[in-house]
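re the bet — no i am not wrong, look at it urself. input seq straight from the record:
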Amino acid sequence: MTSPIIDAHHHFWNPSSGGDYGWLSGPFEPINRVFAPEDLRPSLRENGVTGTVLVQTWNDLGETWDFIRTAEATDFVKGVVGWVDLTDPEVSETITVLKASPAGKWLVGIRHLIQTESDPNWLLRPDVKRGLRAVQDAGLVYDLVPNLPQLPSCIETARAFPEKRFVLDHISKPEIRNHGFKEWAALMQGFRAERGHVWCKLSGMVTEANWRTWTPVDLKPYVMEVIDIFGVDRCMFGTDWPVCLVAGSYAQVMGALRECLSDLTAAERDQIFGRSAIEAYGLSV
């Protein structure tokens, strides 16, 4: 039986829906349009992808409701990483209502765009920690999506919740285009002691590289460093579609990771391209 391939990180959006999509301007203007399930389906079919994890795009509870309903109606979406207000004293009740809804089974994780917060230590606030405990009590994963300034607080948070599953998105967005390996790698070492309960997505890399000139050679040192820190069983594939389209097609992003992993065994590649996401998020595939 062929091992399932899971794209552990992609989005849908409609910029005219009133969401926080002001960033879809300038160099991102080419992706300032609706992206829906039928836009992604051909790429999944052409690249042999079995299922996906749909991830929040802005800090809005309404989008979380929309996404779990989308998952209910879309055969390839196997899980949703949504948003709830972690600082809300009633966050536990909000999660309970979401999970108890007809589409609630698709909610597998929570994420907050911490890089939009002015405080790089936002995750360490007492009210946020209370919210993280509610996420843990609900059996949900928490996705960490930092830039480098927020990375130390992510490591401290993982250390403070040793029983909680975390997933680090986009290998923490190193500045690949500016040769930012050294600073990034030094900070990432803090996750080495937390590898038993923290996974890392090999995603979002092409948009941190030079959009026009990147090759898999540019990405490989970062990929191999992540594998060294987290281990193969804690690394997973994601495209960050449609954000990735500013720098490369779905097939190019997937092919680049395959090339970076060419020295691994077939079993190790299967783990990264599918099993890790299934295990971290508890997906039913």
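see?? The chain has one domain: 6-281. told u. also The first strand starts at residue 6 and ends at 10. so pay up
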